[in-house]
Design brief:
The chain is mainly alpha-helical and about 250 residues long. It has two domains: about 5-70, Arc Repressor Mutant, subunit A; about 75-245, GntR ligand-binding domain-like (Four Helix Bundle (Hemerythrin (Met), subunit A), Up-down Bundle). Helix content is about 75%, strand content about 5%.
Length: about 250
């Protein structure tokens, strides 16, 4: 692998990150340092630092002396991740319409066309890749460097938390339609509409997750646990959204 301590750590982290995003390491799978060290042909020190980096990104969680495991599909984690995605994606779409409207068709339109082509014949891995790229490009168009720092959340929710929903031609077709409407709002500078469409897009994904038999029990459990706190969070989110125009966002 690459030379230089920092470069080696990032290279190891990149390999592990791609294996997680690619489904080679599944949610809940235990990753042992001894085995990883042998597989990647690196010493334990840079490997530990790479795993700490992935832990800071929320991709792995510590399992004591056993090592770390890939983040699991837990109800509270899903609710928190998608609640944050809704706010971040909404802000990204609004700012993209305000700052990057002139680039939207060229940078987003082609991705939507490619996504549509990935539906028939159905190419799930390619669709998911393009889906992540689409949302990443909206964030880039926003010109907000703090939003760019949240890309790990976008990748995590799109490739780890929601694979059973996204890898479905029916849901993919709906997603492409939602993306088309979002691109139209952004390229014409309709900031409020772009934000509303983007937030609705994330809520639709969350609704599909709630219908998934492997996920819905966890969501129900988390919702019962959070109760009034969840309602309060939604109210605060709505209030924050209403304030955006007033503060120039």
């Amino acid at each position: 692998m690459g030379s230089g301590r920092a470069g080696l750590v990032e290279e190891v982290a990149h390999v592990l990150r791609q294996r997680i995003y690619g489904g080679i390491y599944r949610p809940g799978e235990l990753l042992r340092q001894v085995q990883l060290s042998e597989e990647l042909n690196v010493s334990r020190t840079p490997l530990r630092e790479a795993l700490r980096l992935l832990q800071s990104e929320g991709l792995v969680v510590p399992e004591g002396a056993r090592g770390v495991s890939v983040v699991r599909l837990e109800g509270s984690r899903l609710l928190n991740a998608f609640a944050l995605r809704e706010m971040l994606d909404g802000l990204a779409a609004r700012q993209a319409a305000e700052r990057g409207a002139h680039r939207a068709e060229a940078e987003l339109g082609s991705l939507v066309t490619q996504q549509h082509a990935a539906i028939s014949p159905w190419q799930p891995a390619e669709y998911v890749r393009l889906n992540v790229e689409f949302h990443a490009r909206v964030i880039e168009l926003s010109g907000n460097e703090f939003l760019r720092g949240q890309m790990s959340l976008v990748r995590m929710t799109s490739t780890i938390f929601a694979p059973s929903v996204l890898i479905s031609p029916e849901r993919a077709s709906l997603g492409v339609d939602e993306h088309r409407k979002l691109v139209d709002a952004i390229k014409h500078g309709r900031a409020a509409e772009a934000e509303a469409l983007s937030r609705k897009h994330i809520r639709e994904t969350m609704a599909c997750l709630a219908e998934d038999p492997g996920v819905s029990p966890r969501l129900a459990e988390a919702a019962a646990f959070t109760g009034a706190a969840a309602a309060t969070a939604l109210a605060l989110t709505a209030a924050a959204s209403a304030l955006l125009p007033a503060v120039g966002w």
